[in-house]
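Appendix B. One record, verbatim.
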Amino acid sequence: MTCDPRHRTITAPRRDLAPHEALAAARGFLDTMSTRRSIRDFAPGPVDPGLIRTAIAAAASAPSGANVQPWRFVVVTDPELKRRIREGAEQEERDFYEARAPGEWLDALAPLGTDWRKPHLEEAAYLIVVFEVHKGGGEPKPYYAKESVGIAVGFLLAALHHAGLATLTHTPSPMGFLNEILDRPRNERPFVVIPVGRAAEGAEVPDITRKPLDEVAVWLGPE
């Protein structure tokens, strides 16, 4: 059998842990991530850009379909750009809350206390706008683009939280205004806006709970 010359391999990296070390590491990760909440009140002041770069590097290590890596992370600190993004997002959100959202959806959002106002888009030290990159402009066709970018965003949120930073996932719909404001090509499709910064002193979050493990995990064989 002949091998495709493009198929080259290296020795897989390993991270071998003793059973007790593995469980301790898993529990430590759970403890850390269990404290992650969506923050809408940000403290003024700078954030080390090295933290942002490192978190994005972690996100970019995520797996992707055919290793195409169909993501772009646009980091916004310019106050004028943040203002324009807020205006565009609030326009879409006002229309959503006041006209487009079905009652069932609004009822589901009620416990969270959200509305069309999005001051955090200006107040956060950074906005990371994540785009799905599709074929065009020299970029190859992606495979499982949404799934790949979704995994990368999960890595990004985890990395930022591990660095002690507060985040929020924001998805106004539609989001075409982001391409115009950020001068991104049409083959880049907005996926999510992530405000990043330090949580304001005394910042509050909705009093909600997570579903218990037995409700979300299904075992089909012995543990």
